[in-house]
Amino acid sequence: MAKEKKPSKYELILCRVFEDHYSAGDEHVEWEREALNDAADALGISRVKNLGDLVYSYRFRRDMPLTINATAPEGMEWIIRGAGIAKYRFDLIPEQVPIAPSKSLPVTKIPDATPEIIASSALGDEQALLAKVRYNRLIDVFLGVASYSLQNHLRTTAKEIGQVEVDEIYVAVDRHGRQFILPVQAKGGSDRLGITQTEQDMAACAEKWPHMICRNISVQFAGGGLIALFELTVQDDRVVILRENHYKLVPSNEITAADLRLYDSAAADAA
């Protein structure tokens, strides 16, 4: 018989913070980063050295502990949002539908223009993914715009949210002259697409580039060499997919005449 898994230190501390600040019926529970140390002390366990990693884990990687979500009404769940510098808030929102690559979409083959030295030197999946997107102009292909990488790993702040990190920022222009700011998140490993990342990217861009149209992009490896691109937004406290396409980078001789006829037919149908 399998032994019941013991809660991790991160889980114990976060649950204690929630318990210390939550009252029955609350839909918003505010707290500050130092509350994590207070919780560890109250539990008699060692403090976490990297408090930011604890919060990041439950915002972007791990499921919220069951003991916290057990207080949510049916059809609702708790998330953690930034509420200022070193400030956070548990918010009760409708249950989110996981954002994952669809298995029913067609695949578009793109001639691989990634320099071999870049592909062989990337330090991790996210860096490799961002490089492939950049060198193969997948943002342009996906959105039908001319885009340019403005900055990698942007660290900034947004009012009422606090610190925001974006993997890469693009600027773009379309054939009508409209200008866009494109926050791009690369998801790999255990990271997941979620409402908090989408919200904070859009908030930071609205604050820093208020005259440009923000379009939120997420990219991830989808298995079998596929790269999935999503355009996301938030509607009624839910992340929704506005657009999703799958691409595969291949040598040009692997793109057949049949592939090209299929792409031509799909473009004609979309016109």
Brief overview, please?
This protein is α/β, with parallel strands linked by helices. The protein has helices at 9-21, 34-43, 51-61, 66-69, 116-121, 125-135, 138-143, 195-208, 257-270; strands spanning 28-32, 76-84, 87-94, 107-111, 146-158, 162-173, 179-187, 213-214, 216-221, 226-235, 238-250.
Secondary structure layout:
Layout: H1 9-21, E1 28-32, H2 34-43, H3 51-61, H4 66-69, E2 76-84, E3 87-94, E4 107-111, H5 116-121, H6 125-135, H7 138-143, E5 146-158, E6 162-173, E7 179-187, H8 195-208, E8 213-214, E9 216-221, E10 226-235, E11 238-250, H9 257-270
Parallel strand pairs: 4-11, 7-8, 7-9
Antiparallel strand pairs: 1-3, 2-3, 5-6, 6-7, 9-10, 10-11
